[in-house]
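debug: dumping io for the single-chain case to check the tokenizer round-trip. Nothing else runs in this session.
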Amino acid sequence: WEMLESQRDNLLDECEANLRMEMFLDSVLAGKTDVADEDLLAYYRQNEREFRTAAEVRVLHLMKALEKHEDPVLLLEEMAELREKLVEGADFETIAKTETEKESGETDLGWITFDRPSNPIESIMFTMRLDEVSPVIAYEHCYHILKIAEIKPSTVRPFDELKEEIAQRVEFEKRRNALREFASGLRESAEI
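debug: decoded output
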């Protein structure tokens, strides 16, 4: 029973100390963490890059594996001829389905998000135009031809959608800065 009493007293002391600390912090931070709409808009504009969605492309794909062919030069010539037909308007999916050597037979890679700019295939995909047929690309022991079927460009998410998230960030930054200022003021006036 005495144990419970002492635990209760400790808990009350802790609660009281926490409340005092909160009241003290509130007095230190009074008026310094107020967030105006202008602050939010300024933060949004300065950090616009953070609020961008990644670009995406839906890619059609035709692939031939070098290991399945004796002569890489001959294979490249065949791929160049296929590409020529595709550029002239032949249906990509029809040709890709009959010609691809991908084990799964997959010719539609679906939506790909631009997140590896140093990957040679991605750097080509994300610099192509809608409906454009790529040159023949040699990559990872295969020859590839790509076609961009759809594009979702990168966009900046609207301010209204982000307002609450930005308000939390700005308030946190203001709070941190005000506490740092307060702490450095204490250091300056401290007698050691």
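debug: round-trip ok. Helices lie at 2-29, 37-46, 72-87, 92-99, 120-125, 159-189.
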